[in-house]
Amino acid sequence: MDEPRPVTVRANQAGRAARMANLLSAARAGSEDAIGQIVSELSPLLWQVARSAGLSQGDAEDVVQTAWMRLITHLDGIHDAAALTGWLVTTTKREAWRVRAAGRKQLPADQDVFADLPDQGPGSEEQVILDGQRRALWLAIGQLPRRCQELLRMIAFTPRPDYAAVATALGMPVGSVGPTRGRCLAKLRALLPGGPDGSLA
Amino acid sequence: MTSPEPGRLPPADEPLDDADFGVLDDIRELFEAVDPMPADLPERIRFALALRDLEIEVARLVEEDQLAVAARGTELSRTITFDSDSLTIMIRIDANQDGTVRIDGWLAPPQCRQVEMKTAVDPLAATSDSQGRFAFGRVRRGTAQLIVHPAEPSSGNTRSVVTPALII
Question: Out of B20, B57, B165, whose CB is closest to A181?
């Protein structure tokens, strides 16, 4: 039960800030390699932002790509990692709204990702099989208000040092000493089998 | 339904703790499993951002249609429209017999511009006529991107208009 958690983004935060600042200044000087590294790091977050907005896969690909192209024209005004992540999230959301407002190829409301809950019943080999823990988490998230589902999904893909910037970009309150748990995460913790004091393990 | 007991809700205004980070890691793994980003998307974005000039005007994809070409049975003709602040670009993609595609394009408002089709191999060049028409007769299938180069500086259009990278 107590497997060690993968350490995804808890690495040296100051080191990341310095590395991203260097990549940004190299990108401004025209380094394709530097832009490529930033793209690899932040595209998974932007994908979730676009999909949370209810876009189809194809529209989400277009919107994420458009956000990166717009960044190219705004690089001069962005100098640190948190500002970069916040700008990209805001721009991706705005581009997603633009596509939705145009009514282009948008998903019917009942086809959002939660409607695709893998049922794990017989014959579901083609679907993603969720083990017990993940299924419990999936069901708990599904009980949250829609806004909380979207928010937690986006924050989960945000590099930790950038939480505050992204929370601000998403209209989520940030405490004076940094990001707080917030209502959505508090509600989710209460719904999980381990209860409010434990994680899933 | 296990509704939480009153008072057992972790306070919303506390700083994030290790258990929160653990739950967020679990959420990330969950969505990586159920709604993963297409594996080739970062490569397509890198292709789109590999530009000689970073002073660009972004042309957004605003409409895409596939029409059956009656005379050729099951063959599909694809039309795509892009909009930027100064220009609308419409292209129509048709399959050639040899496995390549033909691309016919129109610029609106109509104008003569140098048009580049960036591909995985060498870029192709064309010039639009006074009606704004341009064409690439044979384009290899794969990732491609249109770049409409700046007009004469006197016209006020000094930036390239660039579309997203497409799979054709």
Answer: B20
